[in-house]
Amino acid sequence: MSSDFKWSLTATVAALVLIMVFSFVAVLH
Q: What span, in angstroms and rounded, lies between the C-alpha atoms of 19 and 21?
């Protein structure tokens, strides 16, 4: 597994998690 693919996947997952957390906080407030 290439490091480029791993970093790309990690960045994508991190972005999705941040979006979900932001949406969750927005709903709570």
A: 6
